[in-house]
Amino acid sequence: MKNVLVVSNYRAGRKTAVLNKKTLRKFLYKNSEDFIILDICDVDNIDTSDFDTIIAMGGDGTINKVLPLVINTDKTLGIIPCGTANLLAAKLGIPTNIKRALKILEKGNTQKIDVISINNTPCILRFGLGYDSDIIGKTPQSIKNKFGYFSYFIAGILFALRLIPQEYHIAYDDKEFDVKASCIIVANAANMYQNLVSVGNRCKLDDGLMDVFILKTKNPIVFFIEFLNILFKHRVDSSRAMYFKTSKLRIDNKWTMGHIDGEKKKFKDNFEFSVIEKSVNVLN
After folding, report:
1. How confident is the model over 180-217, as pLDDT tens digits?
2. What is the tens place of the pLDDT at every residue in 218-242?
3. What is the rounded CA–CA span in Å between residue 38 and residue 25?
4. Which of the following CATH numbers is that of domain 121-277: 1.20.120.450, 2.70.98.10, 2.60.200.40, 3.40.50.2300?
């Protein structure tokens, strides 16, 4: 690391980025030639051409924010997980402890990983509709600040009691079908609740494929049965759910609320998904 840009989200998670700032500064004074620590709100206003390393200090949404700065470039992405979920960091084996996370940056080992393109918008973790989007988008920040990742577990139980299926038209590979789904997840990293469960079979960050999970039930009891199947790695197609991998995908959409890497958004266009293979060089 020579010239380092740190993009920090001081509002993420339990605001641990604020507590970690002093430790990070000491590390950068020792391990870089020059550095700037920037608030996430100001990242669109800075010229990044002189930086060789860009560090995201925050959650998965913070990593998504810096993606356009590192994708298909010779810049290296560093991660200091300070968010609520920190799922990409968990998948990469990056600890939330600041000193241990900095050790990974210091070693300098890198891995090239894939990114999903959703209507030309980059996504490094996952995209979600329905139940998954409700958990991410409707859990209040105040609750997340108080309970951390456990807040998503509580929200997951509550929203499972009121699953609302919607009709979607889906096309991938040589298949095309209509489905009534209460949840759709398209994942680059399919892990949830840290690394406790995964909605993908043998999901990898560098395999050139997306993992797709479709939940087809609105019955909470049936949902919890499927959740147990996921928990015990018995992920097979059934009347309850579908699992598949693909490099290209289309989902026809009508004004649907969803999320990209934990950032909620209302979408009006159909979704076109593709994989940008090994397009980000990340320190891990």
Report:
1. 999 999 999 999 877 888 999 889 999 999 999 999 99
2. 999 999 999 999 988 889 999 999 9
3. 12
4. 2.60.200.40
Report yes or no: 79 and 89 within 8 Å, Cβ to Cβ. yes
Query: Closest by alpha carbon to 62, among 45, 77, 51, 76?
Result: 77
Neighbouring CB atoms inside 10 A of 201's CB total 14
Helix (H) or strand (E) holding 186: strand 183-187
* Displacement of CA 209 from its chain's centroid (Å): 15
Counts for the chain of helices (H) and strands (E), in that order: 8, 18
* Structural domain boundaries in the chain: 3-108, 121-277
**Which residues lie closer than 8 Å to 127 by C-beta, 6 or more apart?**
116, 118, 185, 186, 187, 258, 259, 260, 261, 271, 273
HSE-CB at 113 with a 13 A cutoff on CA atoms is 27
Tokens representing 185? 């997840």
Q: Could you give the residue ranges of the DSSP H alpha helices within 140-265?
A: 141-147, 150-160, 220-231
Dihedral sign, CA of 281, 271, 91, 190?
negative
